């Protein structure tokens, strides 16, 4: 039988010396930029949820123009909402 040299990864697997996996952070802050704001940290949520914002608030933030979308939202109380 021939001997095959192992790299660090293979020996770590065989010797069970892999690093411990970190847990899911769930939520974290990420830097963002808005016109007229010096400092901004946005809360990012890795869950399967979405956040709704009134159009007037979006326009007040001077963000890019929105594009129409077609979707149906099923809310927490199980009611269904469709955009007009």
From TrEMBL:
GO molecular function: RNA-directed DNA polymerase activity
Keyword entries, A-Z: Nucleotidyltransferase, RNA-directed DNA polymerase, Transferase
Protein source organism: Tanacetum cinerariifolium (Dalmatian daisy)
InterPro entries found in the cross-reference section: Peptidase_aspartic_dom_sf
Name by which UniProt lists this protein: Reverse transcriptase domain-containing protein
Gene3D superfamilies in the cross-refs: Acid Proteases (2.40.70.10)
């Amino acid at each position: 039988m021939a001997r095959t040299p192992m790299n660090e990864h293979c020996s770590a697997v065989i010797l069970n010396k892999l690093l411990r996996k970190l847990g899911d952070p769930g939520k974290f802050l990420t830097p963002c930029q808005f016109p007229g704001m010096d400092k901004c940290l946005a809360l990012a949520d890795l869950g399967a949820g979405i956040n709704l914002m009134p159009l007037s608030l979006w326009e007040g933030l001077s963000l890019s123009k929105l594009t129409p979308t077609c979707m149906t939202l099923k809310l927490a109380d199980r009611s269904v909402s469709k955009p007009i």
